[in-house]
C-alpha cells in the first residue's frame, strides 16, 4: 500500500489497539451519535477533548489525522460555505440578494466544520487501530443476536471480511492498469468531457472484469476447500471482553449523558 | 556518444514519510544505446519493476538523473514532454491483457495511437497493420477483446502498445502464463522488432533461456543495486554458481563433468550443436 489514507490500518500495540473490536465499533457508533447531538461550544469541546485523549491513547500522530481528513476537505468546505451563505439568523454582516452572511450562519459553519472533523477522526481512529479482520469479527459479534431472526450472520461476516481483504488487491490492480493506460497516452483529469469519460472507462472496465474474475476464482477456491455457507465455525483470532472494555463503554455512555445534558434547547 | 536512455546515480525511495518507507533503487547507472536487446534479471523485490517505471515517467527518481532521448524526466517535466516520451517508450506490463477495455479489438489497439495525436484513420491503419503482425487475423478485428482466448488477448494487448510505434519497448515478463507456442511467438516477434526496426528492447524476465538466446546484454539487479551489467556469455561464466543456468550452459557443464570440454560457453541451442560438432570432428 502506497499511502496512509482514510480506512487503512496501522499495526501497533497501544491501549486502543488492544481493545475488543466489538467495543470499538460500538463506541465509535455511540460517539458519532453524541457528535450529532452536540450543538454548542461546551459539548463540542468535551467531545474534542475526549477524541484528543483517544489520539494519545492510540499513539496516532497529528500528521496521520491530517492525511485522513484531507480527502474530505472539499466536502467539508462546501458544506461550510453553504452554511455561511444561507444561514439567515442573527446579525447581518453582508448581504447580496438572498445571500447573506450572518453571525448565526458563521457560528453554525464553524460548528459544522468541527462536527465533520470529529466524526472523520473518530472513524479514522477505529480503522487505524483495528485490522480489517478484527472489524469483521467485531461486526459479526455485534449483529449476532440477529441470527435468531433468521439473518445469516456468519455469511454476512465472511462477505465483509472478503470485501475488506480485496480492497488493497484491487487498489494495486487499479494502479497497474492506470500505469498501463498512462503508458498508452491517457492523461487522467485533462481534455474535454468525452475524452475524460473515455479515460475513466479505460480504468473502470478492466477493474470490473478483474473483480469478477477474482470473485469466480475465490468461489472456486472456497468450494474446493470444502467451505459451507451455514456451518458453525470457530475462529483463529479470539477477542476477549476485558474489564477495560467495560470501563470504556461506561465512560462513553457517561460522556453521552453529559453531552445531552449540556445541550442548548 | 548519444544514449537513448541514460540513468545517472539514481535512487528511488518507496513511500517516503510513511512507516512503509523502503529504498527500492540505490545508485543505479544505466546507459542504453539504440537497438540494444537488454534483459533485466533479479529476484522478487530487487527493484526491476521500479526501475522500468522510471523509463517513461510513471515514477520519478528520488535522487539522480533520468534522461530519455535527451529529455530529463523528473517531477518538473512538462506534460507535453512527458507525453512525447511515453509515445517513444512503449511499456508492456505483466499480464497486459488486464488493460483491455474497448468494444472491439480494433478500437482497443487504436486507443494508444489516437491518444498520441494520430488521426482516426491513421490509428486504424496502424492498428490493423500491428494486429496482423502479431498474428491476429482480420476476422477478429470487430470482436470484443473479452471473447478471445488468453493467448490472443495477450497479443492484442501487446499490439495496443506496438501500434504506437515506440523506439524503445519495455516489457515486464511478457510471456508469463502462456503455453510454449504462444511464448515462442511473442519472443520471436520481439526479436524481429529488434532486428528489423532497430527497436531498443528492455525486458524483465526470470527465464534464463530468454537471457541467453535473445539478449545481447544483461543487467542483474540485487537489492536495488546493479550487481552486473555485461554480455550474457560473460554473465553466465561469472555467475555459474549463483543463478539458474540456461539449458545450453547446463549442457556445457554436464559435458564437462563427463570429460568433454567445449571450446566456448554456448548461449543458444544452435551454438551448442555447432560446438559439439566441432569437438566430435576433432576427436575423429
UniProtKB/TrEMBL annotation, chain A:
Source organism of the structure: Fructilactobacillus lindneri DSM 20690 = JCM 11027
Protein name per UniProt: Energy-coupling factor transporter transmembrane protein EcfT
Cellular compartment(s): Membrane
Keywords, comma-separated and alphabetical: Membrane, Transmembrane, Transmembrane helix
UniProt xrefs under InterPro entries: ABC/ECF_trnsptr_transmembrane (IPR003339)
GO CC aspect terms: plasma membrane
Leader sequence segment: none
Topology of this chain in the membrane: Multi-pass membrane protein
Classification via Pfam families: CbiQ (PF02361)
Ranges annotated as spanning the membrane: 21-38, 44-66, 73-96, 108-128, 148-167, 239-261
Automatic annotation (TrEMBL), chain B:
Keyword vocabulary terms for this entry: ATP-binding, Cell membrane, Membrane, Nucleotide-binding, Translocase, Transport
Keyword Transmembrane: no
Chief localisation class: membrane
Keyword Cell membrane: yes
Stored Gene3D superfamilies: P-loop containing nucleotide triphosphate hydrolases
Residue ranges of domain ABC transporter in the record: 5-248
Pfam families the UniProt entry points to: ABC_tran
Membrane topology recorded in Swiss-Prot or TrEMBL: Peripheral membrane protein
One GO MF term attached to the UniProt entry: ATP hydrolysis activity
Cell compartments where the protein resides: Cell membrane
Family: Belongs to the ABC transporter superfamily. Energy-coupling factor EcfA family.
Function: ATP-binding (A) component of a common energy-coupling factor (ECF) ABC-transporter complex.
Descriptive protein name: Energy-coupling factor transporter ATP-binding protein EcfA2
